[in-house]
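Subject — a protein and its fold
Fields — amino acid sequence, structure tokens
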Amino acid sequence: MKKTYQVILSVLLAVLLLSGCNRAGVLNESTAPVDTRPTETEQMSQPHKQTDPAETEETTQPTTQLESEPTQELNVPTEHTHQYSKTVVDPTCTTDGFTSYRCQCGYSYNSNMVPALGHSWSDWETVKDATETEPGLKRRTCKVCAMPQEEPIEPGTEPTEHVHQYTEAVTVPTCTTEGYTTYSCPCGYSYVDNKVSAKGHTWGEWETTKPATETEPGLKEHTCTVCGKTEGAEIPVECKHEYTQTVTPPTCTTEGFTTYTCSKCGDSYNGNKVTPLGHQYGGWNVDRQPTPDAPGLQYRICSVCGDKNMQEIPYTPPTEPTPPPSTGETESTDTGEKATSPESCTDCTDKAPA
């Protein structure tokens, strides 16, 4: 029983010691500062030392047990020594350089940091000169990575050192397209000027490809002597017309005319136009008398085409009859005495008939 207990205790102690050693090794590797990492002069090695479980066992077990029970030998892992390979990453204009150290076990770190080089710019070149109202444009390029950089030139700024050196490329006009001259500078700036209008076609003589007859039109064409474009046209019918006449008489509202039609080719036209006759209306007939609430209605009929013309009759209120003028005195038919007019009566109330 004691032997079994001793074996179990020895195994547990060995496991605990191995676990603590591995953790200590990982902690040391992950937290080690850059300046404490191995360099090439230290032979690119960094051992992980493991503690022998047998040594710990002898210090922790009672003396009596060790003397009476012999300890069993344990398989202890051998210590790991990093074998580094290095990769040098050169700095660029915008990124830092460094040396990467990597072991086959997967552990790695970077060292020997070198700052980014920064761009090495060429001289500024003017792409577009500034004017009094519009900004210009200048450009320069990194000599190392070829990265371009552009900046505006404020309006009214004097031209910089760059002076455009233009080459000319002439595009001649054609019959349908205009000509122009393109001015280009090696800096990339260019513009177009000296525009010339299209020349237009230079046509040759017409040539008949199909003669016209009395019933069918013909065809003709001519060709541009410059670009070779061909254009066609129709030749009218060559007919000795024999026209018949058809008379369309005028009506009250439409004009009259004579239609002339060729019996050979069918050509026709109108002539001898006559203006419309206009309606011949009779007298007005009352259809409805006007009232205070609605106007009346009357109509008349054209004796030629029967058109019915309607018209409203406005309402006119009747006028009261005008009394005869007064003479001032009237004679009585019964007594023969002169009657006194109302205007001269001084007491008409008393003398008025009951």
